[in-house]
Amino acid sequence: MSEIIVVTGIPRSGTSLMMQILEKIPIEIMTDEVRQKDENNPEGYYELEAVKGIIRDNSFLREAQDKAIKIVAPLPQFLDLSLKYKVIFMRREMDEILISQEKMLNKDQSAEREKFKTIYELHIKKTYQFLELNKIPFIDIHYSNLVSNPNYELTKLIDFLNMDLDLEKLKASINQKYYRNRLL
């Protein structure tokens, strides 16, 4: 049976970077490019509009077999369980995510950070619970490590995907200048 590679994580956790890496493998990417590149994601968002309606209709997943698709947390809990998946869970320090979102929105939300942290941590927890309950294989890839120590994270990825891949080619997708919102 074919499988679908799902890239998930909280927005601003590195999901678009992972899609760029998968595209280099090359794995076909499910994207419609409705959301255009911008200063916050100069290489693109790699999104598919149909994912926004996954709660009502997940039939688009049948077209994603042998491809990669980005589905932010907690939306993977609406996957079609008759299909086979491998999930790459992008992780990033929550404070970095929140700062990055504030810059993207050009809005100071520091007064609401604790509320957002609680919501996002719940999204992460629900996604992990769903994956574990349904025995869907997943791997955690840590954004800061991916950018600062790509050999380690990319070797984990290659092992997880069980593919013979060129590490140097994958590393070429990682541009450290885009890691702009980091904790010191």
Principal-axes geometry comes out as globular
**Biggest β-sheet: count, sense, barrel?**
5 strands, parallel
Indicate the structural class. Answer: alpha/beta
Distance between the termini: 45 Å
- Radius of gyration based on Cα positions: 16 Å
What is the strand content? 5-15%
Structure description:
The protein has 184 residues and is an alpha/beta fold. It contains 6 helices and 5 strands. A 5-stranded parallel β-sheet has the order 2-3-1-4-5. It is globular and about 50 Å long. The N and C termini lie far apart (45 Å). The mean pLDDT is 89.
Short description:
With 184 residues, this protein is an alpha/beta fold.
Summary tags:
184 residues; alpha/beta; Rossmann fold; five-stranded parallel beta sheet; 5 strands; globular
